[in-house]
## 1
Amino acid sequence: MTKTIEITPNSEVLFGTRDENLRLMEDALHVTIDLRSDGVHVSGDPEATARVERIFTDYEFLRKGGLALHNGELHAMLKLVVSDPGATLRGMVESGKQRSTGVKRMVQPRSPNQRKYVEAIEQSDMTFGIGPAGTGKTYLAVAMGVAALMAKKVSRIILVRPAVEAGERLGFLPGSLQEKVDPYLRPLYDALYDLMDQERVDKLLERNVIEVAPLAFMRGRTLNDAFIIMDEAQNTTAEQMKMFVTRLGNNSRAVITGDLTQIDLPNPKKSGLLQALQVLDGVEGIRFCHFEDNDVVRHHLVQRIVRAYDSYGREQQPMLPLEMGDAPAAVLAGEKKKVQQKPQ
């Protein structure tokens, strides 16, 4: 069947750069979209043409409501809408607004795996986000933490990173202990300042409502009523990981992120994140979310770089036995598969 959709003022924004959004709808929904003087002609299966019409209707509703989506954001949302028959553009924006309380910009997943990750954080007590650089693991976790704090679901945010000495000894670096470890924590500060006004962030840091600290500072603590994020978890030892996951207190939620292809420990086989994949798989209340190179949301070149390194890693390390039950080497080589073996 063929459906004619009226073109309204400014609706051309929905077409995307060089009509890339129209091509996305055509390829994903198997329809043909023609731009005519009297409107947009959509030909294809009745259900598919109805979904395209719904996208146009939702976009017009949002535009009239004053929402301006830049093309990168709009294109990412459309990728999710066309991949999931139950998703709508309007519904995604409304859910994004709900989880963006007190945040400068709307927190919106840009890939199916990011969507699963956000939903896992909302529904689970502890979530692991595992995947390559640029997939939004840390940024989305911090955004969800800020939204939870602003909605008064928790009373504080605790951001943690292991301070791994990558070529430099902390003792030889100038300054106090906090000044020594601050460079390791800078990515967490960057995410905070991107999501909230700097003055507000500084006040919350000063009052310890937001705490940014190296992992070693967590030992012996019970973290109640908090949203806790540990970044770069691949650089924890097995002992550090066990220490961290047992800090969780009442009314708290934890998110643990890491990239198994960027382990900076002297012995990569002893990564606490690798062991956690084995030990905690199947534990009720814990979710593992795996990202792939097509989830990269930085510059498009980053996606190609990640793929190149993954390919090189597979060629150079076809087999890399692990001490903890000899888990598949594919985990280290960038293949996002859950480890099935149990530790010895």
Note: Residues 77 and 111 are 8 Å apart (CA to CA).
## 2
Amino acid sequence: MGFGFTLKNKDKDSRARRGVLHTPHGDVETPVFMPVGTQATVKTMTPEELEGIGAGIILSNTYHLYLRPGHELIRRHGGLHRFMGWDHPILTDSGGYQVFSHSELRKITEDGVKFQSHLDGSYHFLTPELSVGIQEALGADIIMCFDECAPYPAAYDYLARSMEMTTRWARRCKDAKVRDDQALFGIIQGGMHKELREKSASDLAEIGFDGYAIGGLSVGETKPIMYEVTEWATAVMPEGSPRYLMGVGTPEDLVEGVIRGVDMFDCVMPTRNARTGTLFTSFGKLNIKNASCADDGSPVDPECSCYTCRKYSRAYLRHLHHAGEILGMRLNTIHNLHYYLNLMKDIREAIEAGRLTEFRNSFYNKREV
């Protein structure tokens, strides 16, 4: 089975949509949050645990897997699904964000990007063609075009040139793609400028991709700017294709993104915050390191049905964190990912029931108490 997207229904009061991604490794209900498994693992979690909390698709990273253990090794072991024991959909990003985030280690040219490995200092040259080739070797269900993630803030002229180069790279990615069983998404760039975002979206749609992503956000801009740029982009993105907001974000970002027409999200926040003791709940964030948790026998979130909240207290989780026990990281991660995935499930149900506005109001009211 190849890739497809079915748009099921739309919210009457916003741009929110319900849909289904069809992939060779199964269907995915949207809107969806994708846990991040940067190096072929969602940190501290087994594939069975991810299945148990309702993860339908995960994300892995081209840059990191190219450097270690190498995409050809993964190809020899049957591709990323078999290598990591995950028989559900996978999306791989292009490596562009990681390359560009190491600004002191790279040089950008029209042909591609020369960069130094953050692991051993070795030099590499990543092109659109190589990025696609790596992702084809990995065998993900959805692969991403190589793009430049421009810094924030940046001059208008720079952003315009960067956006045009990203479009040229996208065309090269499409031309380089060989496998028919993988979907290729183009990435909309253009900084915080409406006309650049609209031109980027229009040019990518003219080339034609299986889906479209909004890149270059959550890079230091304010939340109102992020939401405004998202709204500009979704307004001109093809109606019948999935829309992916890359690297975003907080629970509030997910709600606001869905309302603006986004179908797919990813972010390291739930896993990274879990390892540092910050837990996401229906009433906001809880810092398990706080002294107030030291003798607290209640669960992290009384409204949560995850394994962690059913079995363990805040006091125990705080103890594990301060003792540096791996179990604490695991239990925190189970909770945070369960919260994110259950939030998306509730959003999907609210769209289907025609009560997304009421859901959004309730979501924020709980945080104001």
Note: The longest strand covers residues 4-10.
